[in-house]
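Open question from group meeting: does this chain pack into something compact, or does most of it stay loose? Before anyone orders reagents, we agreed to write out a predicted structure and look at it together. Recording both the input and the output here so the notebook holds the full record.
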Amino acid sequence: MRCFRKYLLKGFVFIFGYKLQIMGMTVIEKILAAHSGRSVVVPGEIVDVVIDARVARDFGGANVVKHMEDHQLGIHDTSKTFFTFDCNPTGSDQKYASNQHKCRTYAREHGLRVFDIDKGIGTHVLIEEGLAYPGSTAVSTDSHANILGAVSAFGQGMGDNDIAAAWHQGSTWFKVPPSVKIILLGDPAPELSAKDLALNLLDQFGANTLLGYAIEIEGDMVEGLTLDQRITISSMATEMGAIIIFFPPNKEVIRYCESRSRMKVDPPVADGDASYIRVEQVDVSGFKPRISRPGKPHDTVALPSERIWIDSAFIGSCTNGRIEDLRSAASILEGRKIAEGVVLKIVPATDRVWQWCLEEGLIEIFKESGALVSNAGCGGCAAGQVGQNGPGEVTISTGNRNFAGKQGQGEVYLASPAVVASSAIAGYITGPDSIPSQPQKRIWEIPDQEAVKPRKTGAATKRPEEITGRVWFIPRDNIDTDMIFHNRYLSITDMDEMGQYTFDNLEGFEDFASRAKAGDIVVAGKNFGSGSSRQQAVDCFISLGIQCVLAESFGSIYERNAINAAFPILTSHRITELKLEDGHELYINFGTGEMRNISRGIPIETDPFSEVQMEIYQKNGLF
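Structure tokens returned:
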């Protein structure tokens, strides 16, 4: 295949003197080709991609600055390099405030633009400011940077190593992903929101069947979707395991992007003969409003008939903090009061949305209902400025993920703005058509609280191409970064401190850090490391001296972070053949892909390190 790619030229391939035309390109292939100086790219190919907007947020920005200073890296183009302060724009946490100040100081010294605490969510700001537009590329320390697929731009969340490299080089490597086309058929019910569409798609495809794919969504109904609706659906690509979800821009989206970017845009369109690994047809006419149950965004069910009492409600996030979302909530809250004992927190996505709410009288409606309205930002994600819950607290949220601990220590259900507003009034989860006329009596329960115990830190690991180690066998899928390294420790930048918190949010493995030994090997299931673009979820294993993580598949951002940190990870779909158990001794050869369960004498072969992975590994890191 390497020889095949070597002769790609202007849509043709030359084999033994014969000129053969190859298949057309998908949307992501066109964008990556245009930004890598190539006429054609194909899935599996690794290309160096020029990045149009290079962004670091407030919690990841300080680590990016540290990399830039520690390695004495210059900035490739200051006009394309930005900070966005959206996780904790209030600076309510001392460590966030410290990180923001460090970023501001660096920005002043190097002439970088800061979209500060008054602006809102960085990915939304990129669209509003015309820095992301159809066909453009952007990277951010935000795992939901793929939200930019709503305007047919290529956005990717990355760890701080990657962002620093992009700042310095102006480009970074990408592995061209295969594409899947989803065709939406039929007409959705009038009461169905964009969030409901996303939750229904999650129910159908789960968290990893689309893992590592670029998704293109088409169909007659797609033309009528507004920009806000497209953003809602695209923002949940990460929860589906996808690289990105693209929508073909309609005239409204094109006009908006041209007005914001002040330039003529030429949206990328897939060729008629583009090659897709799968084409799925989905009938949306039977879709119903849904909620996600706590812990798993893809664990969605219809609105429950039994009463699930709530303590708090949250409307906002990059998924549902747009003006259309807040109008929907206001239409339900107007003239009503939030149930006694329930707290409703509302966070607009950007300051522009906040101003619209003020001008249209929505802020007054929210305040009259008893809601707390915060300044624009991300809200409850990543220990943000507002929206977190406490142990035992039950929250219904418009966010995009509800992993254990993601929005606090309680339980979080996901739903549309209309369902969240209705539930806040009722005091239990319900829809707009089932809000009771009179307040309902609730029987209160006292939650249990469990203290977090500190863990011991292990020794550093060595880096040979052949290793042997004791196995930690964790046959679970979708182990997310909050389970690996919880967001309450995100402010930690010293790797030596990270190991003690490894897996302390993974049920059954809370004592992992105290029992793990340098040289151990972790073996897991599918989609390991899904979720946030969290470098610490890799570095904590390095801190403990873990030699390698072997899994059936990895979250795409986690895979990059591990490779760039020179931490060995390997993917194999044949893990079950090894018949591993805890404590078995496992041999792995990174160069050949050979593995052997020494304890049982069972050998298998899998894909070895790629050339890029081996090069970075041998250099002991991206830098």
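Observations to bring back to the group:
DSSP finds 20 helices and 28 strands in the chain.
Residues 94-110 form the longest helix (17 residues).
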